[in-house]
Amino acid sequence: MLAKTFLPRHILVSRCFSSVTSKKLKVGDTLREIRVFSSDDIKDYAEVSHDWNPLHFDPESARKAGFENRLVHGMLVSSMFPRIISTHFPGAVYLSQTLHFRSPVYIGDEILGLVQATALRETKNKYIVKFSTKCFKNHSELVVLDGEATAMLPNLEMLQQESCLTNKALP
Fold this sequence. Notes:
Elements: H1 8-11, E1 15-17, E2 21-24, E3 30-36, H2 39-49, H3 59-64, H4 74-78, H5 80-88, E4 93-101, E5 110-123, E6 126-137, E7 143-153, E8 157-160, E9 163-166
Antiparallel strand pairs: 1-9, 2-8, 3-5, 3-9, 4-7, 5-6, 6-7
């Protein structure tokens, strides 16, 4: 089951790199990033997107809608995926992304974003790579967001900056 390959506790035992090195991307490689979204992030995102939905700003509106507190914009959470890819592959061009919002993300939640290469092919000296994408909440197995991304990479040389990666099938 694909979800089992993304469990955060298994990623923690992956090889980690603390300096800038490179490695060739292979199918099965997984990249990750952890982020905590703040009130300032919500405000900054709303200013750019013009999404001023009260669920993001008013705790009472959020509670009346059945949520515990103010929500982080789902699209802001999903922005972790292109960031993870472009951090490791400068010059990457994002081609597509499917998203399934599974569970709410609240301000202050720690979100683990993962992208795993599932297919790659060379075309005209560039590489088209499909990635499985997932976000987990607060060191749990709770998937808050998942989908699939496709990106065009200038090469398969991966920059690794204080991140973890694995190319093993995870239990």
